[in-house]
Amino acid sequence: xxxxxxxxxxxxxxxxxxxxxxxxxxxxxxxxxxxxxxxxxxxxxxxxxxxxxxxxxxxxxxxxxxxxxxxxxxxxxxxxxxxxxxxxxxxxxxxxxxxxxxxxxxxxxxxxxxxxxxxxxxxxxxxxxxxxxxxxxxxxxxxxxxxxxxxxxxxxxxxxxxxxxxxxxxxxxxxxxxxxxxxxxxxxxxxxxxxxxxxxxxxxxxxxxxxxxxxxxxxxxxxxxxxxxxxxxxxxxxxxxxxxxxxxxxxxxxxxxxxxxxxxxxxxxxxxxxxxxxxxxxxxxxxxxxxxxxxxxxxxxxxxxxxxxxxxxxx
Length: 315
Ligand SMILES: *[C@@H]1O[C@H](CO)[C@@H](O)[C@H](O)[C@H]1NC(C)=O
Prior knowledge:
Mean pLDDT: 85
Distance between the termini: 164 Å
CATH class of the largest domain: Mainly Beta
Largest sheet: 6 strands, mixed
Region (Disordered): 289-315
Domain Ig-like: 17-123, 126-233
CATH topology of the largest domain: Immunoglobulin-like
Keywords: Disulfide bond, Glycoprotein, Immunoglobulin domain, Membrane, Signal, Transmembrane, Transmembrane helix
Number of domains: 3
Helix content: 25-40%
Bound molecules: 2-acetamido-2-deoxy-beta-D-glucopyranose
Structural class: alpha+beta
GO biological process, one term: regulation of T cell activation
CATH architecture of the largest domain: Sandwich
Number of helices: 4
Organism: Esox lucius
Radius of gyration: 43 Å
Low-confidence stretches: 301-315
């Protein structure tokens, strides 16, 4: 009897690790998945034991957002998707990797990420008789958009580029790089927060011509280890040669404006000048004639003559 009990205990003890190792469970990911709006992401989840993966083709696989109503994000069973009860926000954007299910890969693919996708997702095998039939994955939508680069202006020092990124979840840092990956000296960056507490970052850099004129704006959120980059190719013609400075449109506007003004001035001014000269000469000639002939026709000349006499008598 004692022997018998002993045997149960010993075998049980030996068997426990085997049983534990062979217990199926759903495994998510403790690190959040970080995405930018418009990204396609994979939320990883696996059906497995400690030592091997388990075929999930015949299982029911459920993805949920417990904080939403309805909470259904994706539903699969009997080898097919059933998304009638799916939350409208996820309509047409979710899928499983059907070829991977046999390897226990029940990861969810989510396309066209939106800010509202930010949250905790549960992957769930309801048919699994285990405490570990559920696991969670966090999706962190770290940024509303990739950095946008624009050409801000041209000056004798080079081309000025501007970079902006918005909707950032954590305090961002902006750096500019050339195509060799070297950091370029840039101006001060401004960071502001909107009412949702998300950051917008903005910065400028003045660049000189390089072999390929490719420049990168990098925005990092160190807290979540998130990095976004956008590259711009600046056309050769934009660089100075001081000529490119003068090729800017406003210089041309001044020049053309000036020339046109000058031409108009000459066109209208010369005849007018001639006309005025003619009138003055005519007046002088008339006046001379009047002085010599003492013409009394005009009352003006009468006044003049009277004044002249007054001056003469006064002296
Ligand atoms: C599942 O399969 C997809 C597609 O092949 C792959 O990208 C992903 O890394 C896999 N995930 C896991 C957890 O195995």
